[in-house]
Amino acid sequence: MLIVFAVFTAGFLLVRADIITEAPVGQLFVYELHREVFQREFEPFHKVFGQVYNDPMVFKCNKERFPDLPRWLRFTQRDAYDNGFLYGTPLPRDQGRNIIEIFVINKRNYETFKERLVINVGPAVKQMPYQAEFFIELREIEKVLPAAVQAEIKLDIQNLWRTSRLEFVNITSALDRGGRVPLPLPGYFEGVYVKLGSDQPFSPCMLRLETAEHQRECASGGKISGDCSRCTNPINCITWCKSTLFDLSKPVPPAPLPTVGSGVLAWGGEFSPPESPPDRDFFPDYIVTVIVPLALVLILCLILSYIMCCRREGVLKRNAKTPDLQLYHHHTIQGDASELRRMAGGDRRTADRPRQCLQPLLMAEQAMAES
Ligand SMILES: *[C@@H]1O[C@H](CO)[C@@H](O)[C@H](O)[C@H]1NC(C)=O
């Protein structure tokens, strides 16, 4: 029964349909990878037995048949016990089907599971000529991406902008913008930039951001008078001095055209090749580097061969010149020394028993006994 159930479930997993989502150009796309959804895929039977797991999981995401994600899409996951997020803003050149492979690795039993996410990037649905970027100091990117938090932040900005027609354009961690990694202590945050867009013009209060007075106040770091932002949740408060407006409603003046010349280079005179360098005499160098070492080697060779061939005595010649008695004397000295060495080596029994020295003593004792 259980086996049939297992085969059935496995078959069901194999024919799982891809997840299909839409992402319009110019708007923030966020896809949350819920750990509890994948937990069900890993342990389909444990529900039967009432066991509930909360496994650490990591996600590896890439574009199908590519090593990395498409350039507009980014992935983040703080911890193996947190959900992962795929997020980014597609540009007009990114339109089309993006197939993302998601590998889920269960860090408890090292099972893996593969999922396909199809993102259809379509043309822009909303014109947002007015855009503004705000810096939220007390947040981290993973904490801002969930839809509920996005709604909270949007509500605050709606009050500031005095319109409800707002859309997120981009959310970026300050780390991706050159920010510093905070200390791993409570109360230190990476900071997040959020960019929102609308078809409604900026409120008069927001327009204060563009005045020279605002810039002066922010540069001096003193009291900020124009801040009209309000935050219902203190951790969503924006930093007024780091807010920027982007007015895309005015047409951008085209870049000045490059000036076209006559197309003919100016006459630069006749070409005269450089003179060849003067001749150099290499003979002294040759003598110093080749002849002198060679001569030295030759002299050393001669000295050495004279010593080896003409100054050697040889064992036979030496023995012939030495008297026999002296030869015998030195021979026994050598033998005694090696015998002593052998005995010192600890092996006394293998040493020859003393003979010649004891013989006269024994004989003298015998003579005394006889007399
Ligand atoms: C969103 O922000 C990232 C990081 O700053 C940037 O690379 C990207 O171009 C932005 N996208 C848009 C559409 O502004």
Automatic annotation (TrEMBL):
<feature type="signal peptide">
    <location>
        <begin position="1"/>
        <end position="17"/>
    </location>
</feature>
<dbReference type="InterPro" id="IPR048346">
    <property type="entry name" value="Sarcoglycan_N"/>
</dbReference>
<keyword id="KW-0812">Transmembrane</keyword>
<protein>
    <recommendedName>
        <fullName>Epsilon-sarcoglycan</fullName>
    </recommendedName>
</protein>
<feature type="domain" description="Sarcoglycan alpha/epsilon N-terminal">
    <location>
        <begin position="22"/>
        <end position="120"/>
    </location>
</feature>
<feature type="domain" description="Sarcoglycan alpha/epsilon second">
    <location>
        <begin position="128"/>
        <end position="211"/>
    </location>
</feature>
<keyword id="KW-1133">Transmembrane helix</keyword>
<dbReference type="InterPro" id="IPR008908">
    <property type="entry name" value="Sarcoglycan_alpha/epsilon"/>
</dbReference>
<dbReference type="GO" id="GO:0016012">
    <property type="term" value="C:sarcoglycan complex"/>
</dbReference>
<dbReference type="Pfam" id="PF05510">
    <property type="entry name" value="Sarcoglycan_2"/>
</dbReference>
<feature type="transmembrane region" description="Helical">
    <location>
        <begin position="286"/>
        <end position="309"/>
    </location>
</feature>
<dbReference type="InterPro" id="IPR015919">
    <property type="entry name" value="Cadherin-like_sf"/>
</dbReference>
<dbReference type="Pfam" id="PF20989">
    <property type="entry name" value="Sarcoglycan_2_C"/>
</dbReference>
<dbReference type="GO" id="GO:0005509">
    <property type="term" value="F:calcium ion binding"/>
</dbReference>
<dbReference type="InterPro" id="IPR048347">
    <property type="entry name" value="Sarcoglycan_C"/>
</dbReference>
<keyword id="KW-0472">Membrane</keyword>
<keyword id="KW-0732">Signal</keyword>
